[in-house]
Structures are given as structure tokens and as C-alpha cells.
Design brief:
By secondary structure, the protein is mainly alpha-helical. The chain has a two-stranded parallel ribbon with strand order 1-2. Helix 1 crosses helix 2 and helix 2 packs antiparallel against helix 3.
């Protein structure tokens, strides 16, 4: 039976601190700022429409007011659906981008195991105690940062 050569990898650290992960967070933060600005502008428009509708309440017939109120509620609901849809799109874009990082890590780990005769790699979160000499996080991170510096995060519509 061959002797097991074990290594430890801090996978979470790689997914958080790699250049590609940082680039993803930077893009996502910019998208969030843009989405927030868009939502705030839309909310302001809707508040102004609501104020105008309240002013017209005594001027319009009950039927006309009910019709305008229904149209306003439909615009509010459409704005809410758009916001929820954009949030879902952004969440999916983040997952897709992070998957690219995850998929780039595995071949790097495999290559490192072949070069160094490592037979098993364990995630650091599953290890209670380990000698730092068996931690391959830094070499994997270095290779990842060389091979994948950026990942395109699709812009939510």
C-alpha cells in the first residue's frame, strides 16, 4: 500500500483573497452602486407621482382617480419586479464568476500534487492541526494570480 502524502489547502482564503475574487468584488460593488442609484431615482419619481396623485384626488372623479391610482400601483409593482429581477441577475452573475475561479483552482491543485507527489489534499476547514509545511495555499494562490487575474462579471440589465 503506497504511503499517503497529505497537503492542506485554504480554499476559502483563495476564493476570498485571489486577484480574480477581488476583481469580482470590485465589479459587483460598482454594479450595486449603479443599481442603488437607479432604484433611488425610480423611487423619487414614484414618490413625486404619488404626491401628484394625492393632489388630484379632490379634482378627479372617483372613477378617474381609481383608474390613475391603479396605473400608479402597476408602475410601483413593475419597479419592484425590475429591482428583484436585477438582484437575481446580479446574484447569478456572481455565482457564474466565482465558478470560473473555482474551476481554475482545481487544475492548479492537481498539477501541484503531481509535481510534489501529493496523494491527498484536504481543505483547511476540515483540519484541526497541521504543520505549515504541508500547506499549499500560497503556491496555489500564486499560480492562480498568474493565470487568472480578472473575471468578467456580466452586468445585470
Amino acid at each position: 500500500m503506497p504511503r499517503a502524502v497529505v497537503a492542506v489547502l485554504d480554499y476559502t482564503h483563495i476564493l476570498r483573497a485571489s486577484d480574480a475574487a477581488k476583481d469580482i468584488r470590485r465589479q459587483v460593488e460598482q454594479y450595486r452602486v449603479n443599481l442603488r442609484d437607479t432604484v433611488q431615482a425610480e423611487e423619487l419619481t414614484l414618490r413625486n407621482e404619488e404626491a401628484e396623485l394625492k393632489r388630484q384626488r379632490n379634482v378627479l372623479s372617483p372613477e378617474a382617480f381609481a383608474d390613475k391610482r391603479g396605473q400608479f400601483k402597476a408602475r410601483v409593482m413593475a419597479a419592484q419586479r425590475r429591482g428583484q429581477g436585477q438582484k437575481r441577475q446580479l446574484d447569478q452573475a456572481i455565482k457564474t464568476a466565482m465558478l470560473q475561479v473555482q474551476q481554475a483552482v482545481i487544475p492548479l491543485v492537481k498539477k501541484l500534487t503531481e509535481i510534489n507527489g501529493i496523494t491527498i489534499v484536504v481543505d483547511k476547514s476540515q483540519v484541526l492541526v497541521a504543520d505549515r509545511a504541508i500547506d499549499i495555499t500560497k503556491p496555489v494562490m500564486d499560480k492562480l494570480n498568474q493565470s487568472l487575474r480578472t473575471v468578467m462579471v456580466p452586468k445585470p440589465q
